[in-house]
Structures are given as structure tokens and as C-alpha cells.
Amino acid sequence: MTTTQIIVPTYNECENINQLVLMLLELPVDVSVIVVDDNSPDGTGQLADQLAEQHPGRVRVIHRSGKLGLGTAYLAGYREAFTLQPDFIITMDADFSHHPRFIPSMVEKAGNGFDLVIGSRYVPGGDTPDFPWYRRLLSWGANQFAHVLLGLRARDATAGFRCYRREVLETLPIDSIKSSGYSFLIEMLFLVQNAGYRVGEVPIIFEDRKLGQSKISQQEIVKALNTVFRLFFRRLSG
Ligand SMILES: Nc1nc2c(ncn2[C@@H]2O[C@H](COP(=O)(O)OP(=O)(O)O)[C@@H](O)[C@H]2O)c(=O)[nH]1
Ligand SMILES: [Mg+2]
């Protein structure tokens, strides 16, 4: 059986973290979990420590001093995962928008020759049932930019629910990525596709979080546009 490390960045997810980690550990795939907590004021980091104590070897926690952003949280998680040499590395939100039930199909596809598998809202079978029209429009617009300006082929270029082949991640110049949040995800996909790796998507139903609050601001969208233009000019200059 293959091994998978799941990276879960957290900031104030005390209502979600316990249930999420327990659900992940019960999946019919060999997974372990790395929580990257940015000193959440609500005590998520302590809850994660308790989970690590209860499940030695299967749950690890990286504590950072304060809210340093999603991009660098992923990077810290990757670095820890590299030391454990799993076959696959998954990233996901802690809020159940990325539901654990989709992980087996993502891992299966990654095992069938795909270097990156995206848990995708925009392939047949995927959906965002809770999105009001303006969020659909915004998300559609962001993907149009990514497709037209950057030539990205994945239908869902901004999704954070991803399964990478570990060897592929290790070859990418990820430490050079400056952007965070949605921008980070677009830049990662840009690197993967341009290195000639194979990208696949499996459908997911993306439900809005029931507990806790979103930490991603509208400002992130503007930053993501910035990133798209920066990468567009990099693409133009070869
Ligand atoms: N470690 C860390 N995690 C973060 C940070 N910002 C957001 N997160 C986590 O990253 C995931 C995505 O954030 P979320 O608020 O759900 O964004 P949204 O899904 O775009 O609304 C969640 O698990 C958050 O707890 C951060 O600065 N540091
Ligand atoms: Mg979320």
C-alpha cells in the first residue's frame, strides 16, 4: 500500500480539528497528518498536540509563532513531509470544505500516473452548492484569468485540495515562491504544469464551512490577480 502525508494548516479551527483528524485517521488509505498551526488564539495548537499524543507517529504538529500566512504554512508542511518520504502529499483546509471522503479517489488517481491530482469543483460531478452567484462569478473569473493568461489547463486552478507525488514536489523550486494564499496555489500549479508533469482532477462537492470563520480576505483576490499578471510576464519572456 502507498503512504500519504496530509498537511492541514490551521488558524482558529478549534471546532473542526478533532473531528477532522479522527476522520482522516479512519480512512481506508495509509495516511498520517501534519498540522501546521500559527499559534491560534483559540487553542487549536494545544488540541493538535493532544491528538499527536494520542496517535504517536500518525499525527505531528508544527507550531509557528504567529499568523504567517497560508503559503509559508504549506512550505513548512512540505519540508516536514519530505523527511518522512511518503509516496503522496496532500494539502487540505481544516474546515470540511475539503471533505476527507474524497481523499481515496485522489490517492487512487495519483497512483495511476498523475503527478498532481486536484480535488476539483469544476469537472463533471464537482460542485459548489453553497456559493451565491457572486462567489461563483469571482471563482470563474479567477480561473478564466489563469487559463487565458497562464495557459493553465486544470479546470480548478485555485483549489487548495491537492495530492502531489512527493518526488515531484521535491524537484520544484518551491522556496522561490513568494506569494501566499490563492496566489500560492496558482503559482504551484504553474510550476507543476511547466515542468511537464501530469495534472489530473477528481470531482469534489465543496461545501461552505459550518464552524469557525474564513481567514482568507477579499484582498487575497487582488493579490491573486497580481500573481497572475506577474506569471504572465514571466511566461511571455520565456
Ligand atoms: N497555519 C495557518 N493556517 C491558515 C492561515 N490562514 C488560513 N489558514 C488555514 O488554511 C485553511 C484555509 O483557510 P480558510 O479560512 O478556510 O479559507 P477559505 O476556505 O478560502 O475561506 C484553513 O484550514 C485555515 O485554518 C495562516 O495564516 N496560517
Ligand atoms: Mg476553507
CATH homology superfamily name: Spore Coat Polysaccharide Biosynthesis Protein SpsA, Chain A
What kind of sheet is the major sheet?
Answer: 7 strands, mixed
Strand fraction equals 15-25%
CATH fold descriptor:
Spore Coat Polysaccharide Biosynthesis Protein SpsA, Chain A
What topology, given as strand order, has the largest sheet? 3-2-1-4-6-5-7
Q: How much is the radius of gyration in Å?
A: 17 Å
Helix content: 40-55%
CATH architecture: Alpha-Beta Complex
Low-confidence stretches: none
Helix/sheet category:
alpha/beta
Based on Cα principal axes, name the global outline. Answer: globular
What is the number of helices?
A: 8
* Secondary-structure element pattern, one letter each: EHEHEHEHEHEHHEH
What's the overall average pLDDT, rounded?
Answer: 95
Structural domains: how many? 1
CATH domain class name: Alpha Beta
Give a structural overview:
The chain is an alpha/beta fold. It has one domain (about 5-235): Spore Coat Polysaccharide Biosynthesis Protein SpsA, Chain A (Alpha-Beta Complex). The chain is about 40% helix and about 15% strand. It contains eight helices and seven strands. Helix 5 (about 135-150) runs parallel beside helix 8 and helix 7 (about 180-195) packs parallel to helix 8 (about 220-235). It starts with a strand and ends with a helix. Guanosine-5'-diphosphate binds near residues 38, 67 and 97.
